[in-house]
Amino acid sequence: MAKQSKGKQPTPQQQQGEEGESLAAEYFAERGYRVLERNYKSQLGELDLVVEKGLQLVFVEVRSRSYVSFGYPEETISRAKRRKLSLVALHYVVSRRLTERVIRFDVLAVIPTRSGPRVEHIEDAFEVDFSGRSAPLLF
Fold first, then answer.
1. Where do the domains of the chain lie, and which CATH numbers do they carry?
2. Against a cut of 0.90, is the pTM above it?
3. Which residue pairs, CB below 8 angstroms and at least 24 apart, start in 17-25?
4. What is the pLDDT, as a whole number, of residue 52?
5. Residue 84: in which H helix or E strand, if any?
């Protein structure tokens, strides 16, 4: 179900986001990943999807668009957004005591086509970003 306030119908954007996240969870599960979290929230922000395979912990940013004329979904992840995702992921890893894991940030883009949504998986889409600089984070 899409996120919504009490008594309100979800907006088309919320509905599209929820559908994209469901598609992403299915995509990873079909490829042998275990879905640990959907819409993980902390005081720092939110992670769309957290999945694992072996010792690899993957934080997935799901991006959906109704139209690609304004750019592809993965192009909408700004430096500030990467930094925020990095901080939320660090909070997740530390709070769950998963510091022995190798982490990765993926983007799953859901792109509309005439025959239905097309999924584009970008592995290792970006590195951990703290203080405006990127640096790999291996625990």
1. 34-134 (3.40.1350.10)
2. no
3. 17/62, 17/64, 19/64, 19/110, 20/62, 20/63, 20/64, 20/108, 20/110, 20/117, 21/48, 21/49, 21/62, 23/110, 23/117, 23/119, 24/48, 24/49, 24/60, 24/62, 24/108, 24/110, 24/119, 25/49
4. 97
5. helix 79-95
